[in-house]
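Contributing new complexes? Match this layout with benzoic acid.
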Amino acid sequence: MAINIGDKIPDSSLRQKTSDGINPVTTNELFSGKKVVLFAVPGAFTPGCSVKHLPGYVKHSESIKDKGVDVIVCMAVNDPHVMEAWGRDQNVGDKVMMLADGSAEFSKELGLDQDLNKAGMGVRSKRFAMIVDDSTVTELLVDEPGQINLSTAENILEKL
Ligand code: BEZ
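Output block (do not edit by hand):
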């Protein structure tokens, strides 16, 4: 069953590539005591994700953070090298934290994974966005496959 509003984020671990190398980022350190917007995409560098989804969060990052959000996270089932390269390509700077869920473990724990084997992409994350307050989900917006409507930065801004 998928995670829902009011649920706690499960214990898990993601990965981040920085100038120090590749480091684990536990969900405890990411969400505990903070207000976080996490959005997930089916794949780094895919057209909708690169043209609309991630750029929207980069553009609106200041407005989102002005509403009390400590961290904006972009997550995908890709490896940390790809996530870092995508962030560099999109000039995210420190506006958006680019995290890898390489084996889809966290996406599966959330119940927000999807089977994209027919597209040659294996198991990926659904496209979604959530607002998490001190590890509790307070808003959850999951898009239908192929759509970028609910989980946009503009929509998240309205919910904050
Ligand atoms: C989607 O938006 O659902 C999607 C994007 C890229 C590849 C596969 C699916």
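Reviewers usually confirm one structural detail per submission. For this one: The helical segments are 27-31, 47-59, 61-66, 80-89, 105-110, 153-159.
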